[in-house]
Design a protein that fits this description.
Elements (H helix, E strand, L loop, with lengths): L11 E6 L3 E11 L3 E6 L4 E5 L4 E2 L20 H13 L4 E4 L2 E5 L11 H7 L11 H15 L3 E6 L6 H16 L9 H7 L1 H8 E2 L7 E2 L2 E8 L5 E9 L17 H7 L3 H7 L23 H14 L4 H18 L3 E3 L6 E3 L2 H14 L3 H9 E5 L4 E5 L2 H31 L7 E7 L11 H32 L12 H8 L5 H10 L5 H11 L6 E2 L7 E6 L2 E6 L3 H5 L5 H7 L5 H6 L16 H17 L2 E8 L12 H10 L2 H10 L3 E4 H8 L13 H12 L5 E2 L3 E4 L3 H158 L6 H71 L7 H70 L7 H12 L14 E2 L18 E2 L10 H27 L5 E2 L2 E2 H12 L10 H13 L5 H21 E2 L18 H11 L8 E2 L2 E2 L9 E2 L2 H36 L16 H11 L1 H19 L4 H25 L6 H26 L7 H11 L8 H8 L5 H10 L12 H16 L18 H7 L12 H4 L13
Parallel strand pairs: 7-21, 8-17, 8-21, 29-32
Antiparallel strand pairs: 1-2, 1-5, 2-3, 3-4, 6-7, 9-10, 11-12, 11-17, 13-14, 15-16, 18-19, 19-20, 22-24, 23-24, 25-26, 27-28, 30-31
Length: about 1550
């Protein structure tokens, strides 16, 4: 990466270090062009060759970059430093192109994997948000959906790097994207995830590097249907480490299941005859029996539950653990030498006990098991020979039997899980997740490590090809030439291992097939075959070891057990023993073999079989689009916050990450966009930027001017060869160095001049002080002279003022006496005049009022008598006309009106009489009050006279003899005499008033008598009315043809909806007086509906009722149809009130629909609203119906009541014995307060009608609930439409657009800069425009301000959540300039809130508190000086510690180059976050969007004012219809 020309003195570079791998320093000296002396950060000076030195990017962000292809210098130390910087900030994921590197944090980070985080990454492009495992899964899923091609995700890494957990996260996210319910209530993805505990129990074990290491490879195929939903899955496993069953070393453990069964409940252990793990040979080879923080007894129960979940029943579970226990007992069977040569027997009774126990558990014959372990049957053409094994061979036979049994058990579990999950044979697409072991190199490497590293070589070749392909795609996309780029391949290593016939695996199979082959002969064969292969090395002083040079480094293998571990065959004796087992499960593990192989041992090579499996896997991966996740273990102590450079760099090499970097370096390792290139290197040629708007041409000119060769310029990027970036940085450093020296020269000049000015100022100040001292002395003398003159002046002024004040006091005393006397005279005159006027006014009022009452009484009496006479005449005419059938109805109507008017007049007379008595009583009380007041005035006048006499006497005695008051005394005496005369006159007036009062009382008594006579006449009139009613009932038999019309009239009068035949069950004579009991007022012109049918019911009545009832139903249906037709259109608004809502309410109230048990009108109204708003994107219509629904709901809320409140319940039933006019008169008497109120058109109009409440039945209450639901639905549709409209703009508003090249030239084109600034906030202005449009629509449709506020509060909360979450997920947004951009946009929103006023915007601005404080943090200066307390309490009080930590660590200053908060503050934040994690406090730093309905019906009712529906004009469609005449009534 570096050349001698690029490295100069003062350059910051990376050099190799034996402890830290790489360490940075500064170049001190360059000798000979190749040896470079570097002072590293620890203070030492090292000498390194120029080829081992790499330049350091001093301008790299302190928190690293999320994609390492964006590094200016793509080399090992740069990659390592970037990963370390991000790991320190808990940023465990980093991209390298399309490859995701995941560093194990060794701690819980739940905020990274919750459901909300999944929602953020759903549909986001790779690189759009911060690196995450969800992003890789999302890209794979959508690539499968959009392109129809299967995808695969390859997760690799060494043991403990977090492969299994990463795979779980991938499965969870894919389940989130494509999950659906399974047949038995569990989803396919849940079954796959729930199978992990079972596979981990039987396939995972503790190793040196990991407490839960997967000792098998796993490839999970998740199958999807055409709609992208998970339809099936399958799990494939590779190379289970069988040797671990029989052989382990300290501090490792065997497979978990062995320890789990030893920790099972005691009854289970007794059943299987188990004790502690220390007593079993297969477990006590290691001193480790327990894991830190793991309770094996609880894990046993968890494994049982997991088996239940994946469909393993109890009998199968019992059989599985019997096999596991049998394997433990097999391991305790020891052998001793037998009597014969090369024979063996069971060693002792303890071994025989374990033998019998194993036979019992496997349900086979104990003797047969013994023979299978120590005997072999050899089949020859002539005979069958049985031979015994020596003790060593018997142990090998025992271990082989245990390994085969466990391997078959594990394969059965995998197959059972696959059957339980189910596969989709019709699936055309799948996503495969490969959890495979990483490259391994231990002190002792055997056949397992050989196969693992062979797998990694295969995967590395696939990985290299994929990376090279990605490079080619990048170059093709940018349209640059890439034909000369070389590709590094590892095919020679693969040929060494798998090539036929000369590969290692082929030679191993050949050795296994020869009985006399040993590991030494196999090793010698390898030495001879590959002695000239550069990838194969023979170690010195070893006869069985060999070394292979892998892509990740050299690995030394021990071939001692290669032959034994490669053999995979079932001994015929073992097969014959377990095939007939009485346990079906055990017998199923060893199905019968074909007859020709039943008596011999068929050899099968594990290496060849594994190669075939691997070939199948590679074919599957080749048919899919691969995605790579490289897991890295940062330290070997498995603790958080520890980053071991040497360990990580080795894993990067083994994982192929550095190989991918080498592929990139072979081409163009440095890629810069035109903006980034110009931003960094425009200082090398500033004149290029002037007057040229083409960024590509400007980059070309800069590179041509510098004379670089071999670079490429694509469509959007500049591609630089290795070393060219360093050369550019060197020249840039020279330019900046010259500029720095110029700045230093100017600064020194400035400092010198500043010192000179300071000295000159000091001299001038000294001179000024001396002159000031002389001036002070002169000032003292002048002050003395001035003081003397002032004293003389003040003394003369004091003497003159004293003389003047004495003279002025005398004059004032004289004037005061004269003015007081004049004021008293004026006061007495005005008081007398006022009292006289009051007395005159009272007397005239009393006289006129008395005359008015007499005249009114006489008039009413005359009117009543005359109308009574007219009524009698009319009655006689009606009796005569009743003989004529055709005129009956007209006579009846006139009679009813006359009788009603007469009754009302009589009641009015009674009321007037009562009012007259009350008026008299009040008049007497007023006169008594006047008399009492007069007496009080007389007493006060007397007391005043006495007081004035006393005052006059005292004044005479105290006055000097010179002053004469004789004339004043005479006047006082005259006034007293006049007052006494006035008092006498008042007494006379009082006496006359008493006489008038007595006369009034007599007149009242006479009026009472006349009223009694009128009451008698009223009773007589009632009697005559009853007689007339009886006559009308008799006549009703002759009017059957008019009965239906009478029913319609009664229906309109009573406003009751028809409910089938229930109407006929009502009383035949009915009138509903609107009194205070039913919430309305009675009036004199109420239409009466009289049912003239006889009181008795005969058998023919049903026939006469059917036709009227049918007619009524048809009429009611006609009215409802007309109402529905009317409200289906846009009726608009009247005085800000929605006409449709008011019309519906008034009609339902008039028809009494709220009080019936059954009606269809509510359903029809709801259906009309539903059809109007369903699937609507027209906000005008939605706002129109939102206004109508809220208004109608408010009216219903204040009108309907579910039960109780009898005083407000409408009176719907009357006693049948009450006569028509008797009930009418009772209704009038029950509501005397209505007298004198205005009547109009048959209904009393007034504000009290709005207060009416009715007891609602179930249909009405259900209608109210449905209306509430539609209100919430329409509100949500409007809110969601606005969210949908502004969501695309929010993605553009969170990050400032890239500045044009012109902005790099300072001080030029001010107008263009202003236009650019205006264009920067165009997206924000689009949001403001959308908000203004919605506000205008809501206001035009008179939506209640309460709902408008709620809409915009939730919208601003949505804006806050989206912007804040995007800010925390995208590091490029957490910059200083981007903070300024977002702050300017927020100012636009604040201006809109101010313009919208608080009535409509409410507290919407406060909902942006998170993004406002986050942006405030980005744009503040001097962040390193801020303390944590100041940040949390003053700057960002709303942000949680996780959010504050996130934004602090992601911040970078792209404008001034400043740093974020200090490291001490970061450390304090980490401590607080750890405490929160320990306290189970949610550590998620993302916000959730609240999409609930933020109000209730009560909130709407409280927030809206009372609505008066009386002044709403009905629409023209129903205005002329007689059935809706009640809508035309107006309030006066």
């Amino acid at each position: 990466m570096a050349t001698p020309g690029n490295i100069v003195v003062g350059t910051h570079v990376w050099v190799e270090d034996p402890v830290l791998a790489w360490i940075d320093g500064e170049v001190l000296l360059i000798k000979g062009g190749h040896d470079i002396h570097v002072r590293v950060t620890n203070g030492k000076t090292v000498v390194a060759n120029v080829s081992k030195v790499f330049p350091k990017d001093t301008e790299a962000p302190p928190g690293g970059v999320d994609d390492m292809t964006r590094l200016s210098y793509l080399h090992e130390p740069g990659v390592l430093q970037n990963l370390a910087a991000r790991y320190e900030l808990n940023e465990i994921y980093t991209y390298t192109g399309n490859i995701l590197i995941a560093v194990n944090p060794f701690q819980r980070l739940p905020h990274l994997y919750d459901t909300h985080m999944m929602g953020q990454y759903k549909g986001a492009g790779l690189g759009e948000l911060s690196p995450h495992v969800f992003a890789v899964a999302d890209v794979a899923y959508w690539a499968m959906i959009n392109e129809g091609k299967s995808n695969s995700i390859l997760v690799s890494g060494e043991s403990g790097a977090g492969k299994t957990e990463t795979t779980k996260m991938l499965m969870r996210y894919l389940a989130y994207l494509g999950g659906r319910s399974g047949v038995e209530g569990r989803t396919v993805e849940q079954q796959v995830l729930e199978s992990n505990p079972v596979l981990e129990a039987f396939g995972n074990a503790k190793t040196v590097r990991n407490n839960n290491s997967s000792r098998f490879g796993k490839f999970v195929e998740i199958q999807f249907d055409k709609s992208g939903r998970i339809s099936g899955a399958a799990i494939r496993t590779y190379l289970l480490e069988r040797s671990r069953v029989c052989q382990i070393n300290t501090p490792e453990r065997n497979y978990h299941c062995f320890y789990l069964i030893c920790a099972a409940p005691q009854e289970v252990k007794d059943k299987y005859k188990l004790t502690s793990p220390q007593s079993f040979h297969y477990l006590n080879q290691s001193d480790c029996y327990e894991l830190d923080g793991v309770d094996d007894s609880l894990e046993y129960l968890a494994t049982i539950r997991a088996m239940d979940i994946v469909g393993i029943n109890e009998s199968e579970q019992e059989a599985i653990f019997r096999v596991v226990a049998a394997i433990l007992h097999l391991g305790n069977i020891d052998f001793a030498k037998g009597e014969e040569i090369d024979s063996s027997v069971i060693k002792n009774d303890k071994s025989r006990f374990h033998l019998k126990t194993a036979a019992e558990l496997l349900m086979c014959d104990a003797q047969g098991l013994e023979d299978a372990l120590i005997k072999r049957v050899m089949v020859t053409p002539e005979e069958i020979i049985t031979r015994t094994l020596d003790p060593a061979s018997a142990v090998v036979s025992r271990d082989g039997f245990a390994k085969t049994l466990y391997s078959r058990l594990f394969d059965w579990l995998v197959e059972k899980i696959n059957v339980s999950i189910g596969q989709d044979p019709n699936s055309k697409s799948l996503i495969g997740v490969l959890d495979i072991y990483g490259f391994e190199s231990f002190k002792c490497n055997s056949f397992e490590q050989f196969c693992i590293n062979f797998t990694n070589e295969k995967l590395q070749q696939h990985f290299n090809q994929h990376v090279f392909k990605m490079e080619q795609e990048e170059y093709t996309k940018e349209e640059i030439n890439w034909s000369y780029i070389e590709f590094i391949d590892n095919q020679d290593v693969l040929d060494l291992i798998e090539k036929k016939p000369g590969g290692i695996i082929a030679l191993l199979d050949e050795a296994c097939m020869f009985p006399r082959s040993t590991h030494e002969t196999f090793a010698q064969k390898l030495y001879q075959t590959f002695k000239n292969n550069k990838r194969f090395v023979k170690p010195k002083l070893s006869r069985t070891d060999f070394t292979i040079v892998h892509y990740a480094g050299e690995v030394k293998y021990q071939a001692d057990h290669f032959i034994d571990k490669n053999k995979d065959y079932v001994v015929a004796e073992h097969q014959d023993l377990l095939s007939p087992s009485k346990c079906p499960f055990v017998a199923g593990l060893f199905p019968p073999l074909p007859e020709e192989t039943s008596k011999s041992s068929k050899f099968s090579s594990i290496g060849s079989r594994f190669k075939l499996q691997l070939q199948s896997l590679m074919e599957t991966l080749s048919s899919t689009e691969p995605h790579y996740i490289r897991c890295v273990k940062p330290n070997n102590v498995l603790k958080p916050s520890i980053f071991e450079n040497m360990n990580v760099i080795q894993q990067l090499r083994c994982g192929g990450v550095l190989e991918a970097i080498r592929i990139s370096c072979a081409g163009y390792p440095t890629r810069k966009t035109f903006y980034e290139f110009l931003h960094r290197f425009s200082v090398l040629s500033p004149e290029v930027l002037e007057g040229n708007s083409d960024d590509k041409a400007a980059c070309q000119k800069i590179l041509d001017k510098l004379g670089l060769k071999g670079y490429q310029i694509g469509k959007t990027k500049v591609f630089l060869r290795a070393g060219q970036m360093a050369e550019l940085d060197t020249r840039r450093a020279e330019v900046l160095g010259r500029a720095a020296r110029t700045i230093q020269r100017q600064i020194r000049t400035h400092i010198t001049r500043k010192e000179f000015l300071r000295l000159r100022t000091a001299v001038i100040l000294l001179q000024s002080c001396w002159r000031a001292n002389l001036a002070c002395k002169l000032y003292v003398n002048m002050r003395r002279e001035a003081a003397a003159v002032k004293i003389q002046k003040n003394l003369r002024k004091f003497i003159a003022r004293k003389s003047y004040k004495r003279l002025r006091t005398s004059a004032v005393v004289l004037q005061t006496g004269l003015r007081a006397m004049s004021a008293r005279n004026e006061f007495r005159f005005r008081n007398q005049t006022k009292n006289a006027i009051i007395i005159q006014a009272k007397w005239r009022s009393h006289r006129d009022y008395s005359y008015y009452k007499k005249l009114k009484k006489a008039t009413i009496t005359y009117q009543c008598a005359w109308r009574q006479r007219l009524a009698r005449r009319e009655l006689r005419k009606l009796k005569m006309a009743s003989r004529e059938t055709g005129a009956l109805k007209e006579a009846k109507d006139k009679l009813e009106k006359r009788v009603e008017e007469l009754t009302w007049r009589l009641q009015l007379e009674k009321r007037l009489r009562i009012d007259l008595e009350e008026a008299k009583t009040q008049e007497i009380a007023k006169l008594q009050d006047v008399l009492h007041d007069m007496q009080q005035q007389v007493m006060e006048a007397n007391s005043m006279v006495i007081k004035e006499r006393e005052a006059s006497r005292k004044a005479i005695e105290e006055a000097p003899p010179i002053i004469k008051e004789t004339h004043v005394l005479v006047q006082d005496v005259e006034k007293i005499s006049s007052l006494i005369a006035e008092v006498e006159h008042l007494k006379a007036l009082l006496a006359s008033e008493k006489q008038v009062n007595d006369a009034s009382k007599k007149a009242s008594v006479e009026a009472q008598g006349r009223n009694d006579e009128l009451m008698k006449k009223l009773v007589d009139a009632n009697t005559k009315v009853d007689q007339l009613q009886d006559s009308a009932q008799r006549m009703e038999e002759k009017l059957s043809n008019l009965e239906s019309e009478n029913q319609v009239l009664r229906q309109q009068a009573l406003s009751i909806s028809p409910t089938g035949r229930s109407l006929s069950a009502r009383q035949r004579t009915m009138i509903i007086p609107r009194t205070s009991e039913n919430g309305s007022m009675f009036n004199g012109e109420t239409k009466l509906a009289l049912d003239m049918t006889p009181a008795f019911v005969n058998s023919k009545e049903p026939e006469s009722e059917e036709k009227p009832q049918k007619f009524l139903n048809e009429k009611q249906q006609e009215y409802q149809d007309l109402l529905i037709k009317c409200i289906s259109g846009d009726l608009g608004f009247s005085s800000g009130k929605p006409i449709a809502a008011c019309l519906i309410y008034k009609c339902l109230l008039q028809w009494r629909s709220f009080e019936v048990e059954r009606t269809t009108i509510f359903d029809r109204i709801i259906q009309t609203i539903s059809s109007s708003v369903e699937g609507q994107d027209n906000n005008e219509i939605l706002c129109y119906w939102l206004s109508n629904c809220s208004t109608l709901l408010l009216l219903l809320q204040r009108t309907l009541k579910a039960s109780g409140s009898a005083s407000l319940t409408p009176q719907r039933r009357r006693t049948p014995s009450a006569a028509l006019f008797g009930r009418m008169s009772q209704g009038i008497r029950a509501s005397p307060q209505i007298v004198g109120l205005p009547f109009s058109n048959g209904r009393l109009i007034g504000g009290l009608n709005d207060l009416r409440q009715v007891e609602a039945k179930y249909p009405a209450l259900l209608f109210k609930q449905q209306l509430t639901a539609f209100l919430e639905k329409i509100y949500g549709m409007i809110r969601d439409n606005l969210k949908k409209e502004i969501s695309p703009l929010l993605g553009l508003c969170i990050q400032a657009p890239k500045a044009t090249r012109g902005s790099l030239v300072k001080g030029s084109r001010l107008q263009a800069n202003a236009e650019a600034q205006q264009a920067l906030i165009a997206h924000w202005q689009s949001i403001v425009k959308s908000l203004a449009t919605y506000l205008k629509t809501l206001k035009t449709n008179y939506v209640p301000p309460f709902l408008v506020r709620k809409v915009f509060i939730q919208i601003f909360s949505f804006i806050n959540v989206q912007l804040f979450n995007s800010l925390l997920l995208r590091r490029e947004c957490c910059s200083f300039s981007n903070g300024e951009y977002v702050k300017a946009g927020l100012a636009e929103l604040e201006h809109w809130c101010y313009a919208a006023t608080e009535e409509y915007a409410g507290s919407a601005w406060e909902e942006l508190k998170h993004i406002r404080q986050a942006v405030g943090f980005l744009v503040i200066h001097q962040k390193p000086k801020k303390a944590l307390k100041e940040l949390r309490n003053d700057l960002c009080p709303v942000l949680s510690i996780q959010q504050l930590y996130r934004i602090s660590t992601m911040y970078w200053d792209d404008k001034y180059g400043t740093h974020s908060v200090s490291s001490e503050v970061i450390s304090s934040m980490r401590v607080l976050m750890t405490e929160d994690s320990d306290n189970s406090v949610s550590s998620s730093f993302l916000l959730d969007d609240d999409s609930s309905i933020p109000f209730t019906v009560d909130d709407i009712s409280k927030s809206m004012e009372q609505i008066d529906t009386s002044d709403v004009d009905p629409p023209p469609l129903i205005r002329e219809h007689s059935g809706f005449s009640f809508l035309l009534q107006r309030a006066e």
